[in-house]
Design a protein that fits this description.
The chain is of the alpha/beta class and 314 residues long. 24% of the residues lie in helices and 20% in strands. It contains 9 helices and 15 strands. It has helices spanning 44-52, 58-74, 121-125, 160-165, 173-182, 229-239, 249-253, 274-282, 293-296; strands at 21-26, 78-80, 98-100, 103-106, 132-134, 146-149, 152-157, 187-192, 211-214, 218-221, 244-246, 260-261, 266-270, 286-290, 306-311. The strands form 5 sheets. A 3-stranded mixed sheet has the order 2-1-15, with helices on one face. A 3-stranded mixed sheet has the order 3-4-5, with no helix packed on it. Strands 6-7-8 form a 3-stranded mixed sheet, covered by helices on one side. The radius of gyration is 18 Å and the shape is globular. The relative contact order is 0.19.
């Protein structure tokens, strides 16, 4: 039994993306399975690096994740890790479970990743049964698409036509309706995302690949990640033009919007994101830069690697 399991007898609670973090599951690169066959990849960026012979190696991934864990612990965060399943990529824990308010949601994810859920079963078993909600039926949803924020839940999704066509479509209309019915106290605002199984420059795998709130009322946004311009404009109007940091298509490809907030003041970012990190510092954020470019080769970054279980009640 993991010695950290007792922490789960306390409340789980996540009301937004930036409240001070107290407990988090950080994925693991241990025994991650090495380079998959091209036909086994389920996102275009991984395929690109498999073809180019630049897919990340385990030791590099472990080094990056160790740097992330060190920063989290620096701020007093309780860091839990999945149980290692041999030869399985368990780096991106965000998608296999998520917390909204005091409810842990077990999502229905693509079949290629179902085995990952076994790695957090012991953790989830420590959460009170009446705080665990499981998706069923035709509901499809992954945590990278879901962002609680104040009185809202932002969610990225694909309508049926795109969901049936693209492997990279991970959340469907039924997933949006699931959130609406189970969190009636929040307004669910859904955004259709642009998808491509072939070109990572034109694929928003999850909502956090093109948008992320930071601080108390700011956001990083890539306009081209949204299928409808009105959704980008909604975010600009909601946060305010001066509070939005726009990023380019190339910056989206590098995962600039996938930073991670430890608190409203502290943001963990990739060390090579020079322009973004300078902007964040100018806006008063404490930036904790770490190397994470190898993880990015699999179309995920810092937010993708985390499953927050408890943030401070504000």
């Amino acid at each position: 039994m993991q010695p950290e399991l007792e922490i789960f007898m306390l409340d789980i609670f996540v009301s937004d993306e930036t409240a001070p973090l107290e407990v988090v599951v950080l994925g693991t690169a241990e025994s991650f399975g090495g380079t998959p066959k091209l036909e086994e990849a389920y996102d275009p960026k991984s395929r690109e690096h498999i073809r180019n012979g630049t897919y990340p190696v385990e030791e590099a991934l472990k080094t990056e994740m160790a740097a992330f864990e060190k920063v989290l612990k620096k701020y007093g965060v309780k860091v839990l890790r999945p149980e290692v399943i041999p030869n399985l990529n368990q780096i991106f824990s965000r998608d296999i479970g998520f917390v909204i308010d005091d409810i842990f949601i077990k999502p229905r994810i693509i079949k290629n990743r179902i085995e990952e859920i076994r790695g957090i079963e012991k953790i989830v078993s420590g959460i009170s049964e009446n705080q665990v909600l499981e998706c069923s039926g035709t509901v499809r949803i992954e945590g990278g698409d879901v962002m609680p924020w104040r009185d809202r839940i932002f969610v990225g999704y694909s309508e049926q036509e795109d969901f049936d066509e693209y492997l990279v479509s991970r959340t469907n209309r039924e997933g949006v309706e699931f959130l609406q019915s189970n969190f009636p106290n929040r307004e669910v605002h859904a955004f259709e995302l642009n998808k491509s199984d072939d070109d990572p420059l034109f694929n928003a795998l999850h909502l956090d690949c093109c948008f992320q709130p930071i601080g108390t009322n700011q956001a990083i946004v890539f306009e081209g990640g949204f299928k409808h311009k009105k959704d980008y404009q909604f975010l600009v109007d909601y946060f305010g033009r001066d509070n939005v940091i726009d990023i380019t298509r190339e910056e989206m490809y590098q995962m600039w919007s996938n930073v991670f907030s430890i608190s409203p003041e502290v943001v963990v970012s990739e060390s090579s994101f020079t322009r973004l990190n300078n902007i964040l510092k100018e806006r008063g954020f404490t930036v904790e830069p770490i190397p994470y470019a190898e993880c990015a080769k699999m179309e995920g970054l810092l937010r993708c690697s985390t499953l927050p279980l408890r943030r401070k009640r504000q």
